[in-house]
């Protein structure tokens, strides 16, 4: 890594260290979002709408609620009219929204523009892979200033991801914290005027610190270009307005080639309750994965920290590398099915080139150690075994009508659909 004491290097790393703070300013109108998103401003919300609500009250509850939403979605997908909000979502203003069928944003998405509060970032500054099924999602965002090549080579010397992180200097650990990945369930509803809304409920989140959940919903309008669905381009607009009644941030999303317009292969899986959390989502040729943090049991709490980045900085300042490394152990990434399920972009860059099943199966197990167990056509009754981990299916393309057919896809024995 270049010497941070040199002038040019110091400027470069200072800009990189600013990445997370800038993202926060754009998203929150420089810290005013909670004022905007309030009952006093005409935008009340219930605790159940908050992104970390189910995550905070326990993984068992989160799994149960998300699975119920997934089943409701499948059951309602063929109905005409009479669609109602899943009972777990209660809007504090008494409004009842309609579940959207199908979702207009199923696909793999790049983010050309993220703008708000007189600042912006583009896909020239960061790599974004947002893979969204009709149920689960994983959203990956990595600044291009990250020294990926250096850390990829450095980390590959170690079989254990924690050892790779332990090999980093204090400055490198702080730099490593400036990236983002989160995953969970996207609940699609409609406003009374017919505009589609998305409320994201997080299951795993790089930014999350226990006891400091995000205090406002992750809820936004969807504007497909030309009103078309599925759209190749759409805008995400803040649900609440600022003091002028305007959306205070927006994101422009653009479809990535190879996702079959969201109309081909879809698969959404989550680790079964009782294990460390994990999500795998697939749309067309693209997949994203996310895995929860690995705790050592020796971590220290930093009650003043409001985000993982703040906590990691505080831990490093106090010489507490153990806590910082545990928070950085959360992993996520992107890859393609056609490559043999290989990872090509990851929070932990030493994963590049690995089969995703080696990573999410908790060891060097190889793709042959993927099994799908179950009888009949109901995928909710199947179980996917990856190494020693067990996964539940939340969504699956109707063309994959048996456990054997899914196993063929996952193990690479059948690539005909690509």
* Mean pLDDT reading: 90
Q: Kindly estimate the percentage of residues that lie in beta strands according to DSSP.
A: 25-35%
Strands of the largest sheet, in order across it? 1-3-4-5-6-7-8-9
Overall morphology: globular
What summary fits the major beta sheet?
8 strands, antiparallel, barrel
Q: What share of the residues lie within helices?
A: 10-25%
User: Which consecutive residue ranges, at least 5 long each, have pLDDT under 50?
Assistant: 79-97, 364-368
What is the H/E string? HHHHHEEEEHHHEEEEEEEEHHEEHEEEH
Question: Count of DSSP E strands?
Answer: 17
Distance between the ends: 40 Å
Number of helices: 12
Radius of gyration: 21 Å
Secondary-structure class = alpha+beta
Write a brief caption for the model.
The protein has 418 residues and is an alpha+beta fold. 24% of the residues lie in helices and 28% in strands. The chain has helices at residues 7-17, 19-28, 33-36, 53-57, 59-76, 148-155, 161-166, 170-176, 308-317, 321-328, 356-360, 403-411; strands at residues 107-116, 119-122, 126-132, 136-143, 180-190, 196-205, 218-224, 233-238, 249-255, 266-271, 278-283, 286-291, 331-336, 342-346, 370-373, 383-386, 389-396.
Describe what this molecule looks like in 3D.
With 418 residues, the chain is of the alpha+beta class. The chain has twelve helices and 17 strands. The chain has an eight-stranded antiparallel beta barrel. An eight-stranded antiparallel beta sheet has the order 14-13-12-11-10-17-16-15. The radius of gyration is 21 Å and the shape is globular.
